[in-house]
Structures are given as C-alpha cells and as structure tokens.
Amino acid sequence: MNDQISSLRTPQIDANLLDEDFNSINWEIFSSIFRYNYSHLIHLFKHEFQLFLRVLTSYNTIFSSRYSATIGQQLLQIKYSSLPLTRYQKFLYLSSFIFSYIYEKFLVDYRRLLPFQFLYKLLLFINFLVFLHKGKYINLFERLTRLNTIHNHLPSLRILDYSYMKRELIWHTLNETLGTLIPFLTSLKIRTFMRKYFSGIIIKQLEQTNICSVCEQTIVMPHQSIGDCKHYFCYVCAYSLIQQSCPICFKTIDNIKPKEFSLK
Predict the structure, then answer these.
(1) What fold does the segment set 206-264 form as a domain?
(2) pLDDT score at 27
(3) pTM of the entire structure?
(4) CA separation (Å) from 255 to 139, 210, 217, 225, 239?
C-alpha cells in the first residue's frame, strides 16, 4: 500500500526554517576560513560565495539520487511527491537561487526598484496565506512546479511527555527568582541591616582595619565620617555612605572628610 499522505503545515514550515539555519551555519563556517587571510574576498564576493554554497548543498541533497530531499526535509522525514526531480523542476529550483542572488546583491539597496520589492514581498505574503489555508506549496518554487510535500512513511502516534517541560519551567522560575533576590540580598542596605540586628549571631561583627568594610579591599584614599562615627573607608565607598548608616557602628554619616593619621 503506497498511499501518499500530504505533510502537515508545521513540518513544512520547520523544514524551510531548518534549511535557512543550515545555510547560515554553512556560511559562518565557510567565511571563518578567510577571517585572518584574504578577508576582503568575503566582503567583495559574499553573495557569489553564498550562491555557490547553496548550489553545492543542493547538488548533494535534493539533486542527489541517494537523498532527494533538503536538509530540513531529511530531518523531519518528509519529501516531495515527485522524485527524482525533472530537468524543468531542477531548472526552476536553481533559478530561485539565482533570483535570490540578484535580488540580494542588486535590488535590495536600489531605491528605484522599491515598488518591485513591494510587489515581490506582497506575492510571498499572499503565497504564504494560501499555504496556511490549503497546506500546500510553502514557497513559489513549489507552487510553480506543483510539488506537493508528503511523509516518507505513515505518521505514527506519538505519546507526549511533559516531564522535560516541567523541569524547564521549574528551572527558569528558580533562575528568575534568584536573579531577582540575590542583588537585593547583597545590597549595602541589606548587609548593614543584617549586621545591625544579627551581628555576632549569624554575621561576624565588623571592626576597623586596613580593609574597607564596604568593598572589602585595601583602603584607598581613606575618608572618615564627620560626627560621632569616626570610622574610615575608601573615598568612593565613604562617599556612597553619605546619609546612610555606617556598616560598623550603624550611626548615620552626614558628611565625610579625609582621614588624618597621627605621626606617633
């Protein structure tokens, strides 16, 4: 029994996107060859190289008697209903590459042809709407050649398992929660609050040393508080503590001044 079952819309769209992604990856790998030597060739002949890679890929995939399908179709186990392709179909398939090459290199930046670009994009949009309605011919090449996409074999019933999705949702929720809480918990005000009420219990009480109590680095340009608090910190750290509590004695710092050391 050789009944041909037309492919669903989703596999056809996914196969088309997979082909585009493969072309992008193929171009990145190819262009990396000239990254350090002859890089000017990539800029001068970018579109020619891309056309060459697309033709080379087609020759080893859809034009090959072994595969007779694009990369995306092979991954999703779909194919064209009429295989192998006739000469006319191969000619139109290659012509679509040449048209894309001409369009991307000469027509995209040519302002006088903006009406043509509008008509071309409108035609693609209308073709896609018809595809969504009827489920056939996702691109103009398939519509011109009347190539229908079918499954390689009868689709089997799939049992969906949502355990992986549940783990991903839990992980992303936990990640977003920690990303929100950690900056809040590590802020200076929270650390000062914790030291004030839990000093000596769960947090070690701070003492004045040559290490800044704010940035926990060696004090640079020491400045101290003007008022009851005589503790000193780095200039930048002390400046950030103005109108806030001292992290050591928890007294409010109104202003700062350079620390004066005795020569005794």
Answers:
(1) Herpes Virus-1 (3.30.40)
(2) 93
(3) 0.57
(4) 71, 21, 22, 6, 8
| Upper half-sphere CA count for residue 183 (Cβ side, 13 Å) | 5
In the chain, the amino acid numbered 23 is N
Give counts: helices (H), strands (E), the chain: 10, 7
Task: Render pLDDT for 30-85 as a digit per residue (tens, 0 to 9).
Answer: 999 888 888 888 888 999 999 999 999 999 999 988 888 999 999 998 999 888 88
- Distance from C-alpha of 29 to C-alpha of 27, rounded to nearest angstrom: 5
pLDDT band at 1 (very low <50, low <70, confident <90, very high): very low
- Which of 215, 210, 216 has the alpha carbon at shortest distance from 231? 210
Residue range(s) in the chain whose domain bears CATH number 3.30.40.10: 206-264
Tokens of 61: 């995939």
**Burial status of residue 152 (CB atoms within 10 A of its CB: 0-12, 13-18, 19 or more):** middle
Phi, then psi, of 263 in degrees rounded to 5: -95, 15
Calpha distance 257→51 (Å, rounded) = 69
Contact 18, 71 (CB under 8 A): yes
